[in-house]
Specification:
Largest sheet: 10 strands, antiparallel
Shape: globular
Organism: Mytilus galloprovincialis
CATH class: Mainly Beta
GO molecular function: lipid binding
Protein name: Lipocalin/cytosolic fatty-acid binding domain-containing protein
InterPro entries: Calycin (IPR012674), Fatty_acid-bd (IPR000463), ILBP (IPR031259), Lipocln_cytosolic_FA-bd_dom (IPR000566)
Order of helices and strands: EHHEEEEEEEEE
Keywords: Lipid-binding
Helix content: 10-25%
């Protein structure tokens, strides 16, 4: 599976707008601006793990495709998540209260492209394999 591996940050579009829209506090937005994220994706049978590291913040989620699981956002909010596969794309729904974020991860050439949509705001973060 092309998504598996360690991915290093390359660039981001509309990330500041996305963080504002989703209520990320200014101090954590500052951490995001100063630190380039690393994402590690691994698969063991039906079990997947996505580990995102931003500065000293680590979000680590282990899940099975199609099964709801509990997670916590980088700002500490409890989330109900479901990950599905759409062809080669991994689509994650993160719900908190009445809000929903959709994260789509796919590989295009040698890049992992992660889009995060909340309401009318969509941010795109690009990574290259480490």
């Amino acid at each position: 599976m092309a998504l598996v591996g360690t991915w290093k940050y390359v660039s981001a579009e509309k990330l500041e707008e996305y963080m504002q829209a989703t209520g990320v506090p200014e101090n954590l937005r500052e951490v995001a601006r100063k630190n380039q994220p690393t994402m590690e994706i691994s698969q063991n049978g039906d079990s997947w793990t996505i580990k995102t590291i931003v500065g000293d913040k680590i979000k680590d989620s282990t899940f099975t495709i199609g099964q709801e699981f509990q997670s916590t956002s980088l700002i500490g909010q409890p989330l109900k998540c479901v990950v599905t596969m759409d062809g080669d794309k991994m689509v994650e729904s993160q719900k908190e209260g009445g809000n929903e974020v959709i994260v789509t991860r796919s590989v295009s050439g040698d890049e992992l492209v992660s889009t995060m949509s909340f309401g009318s705001v969509t941010a795109t973060v690009r990574f290259k394999k480490a």
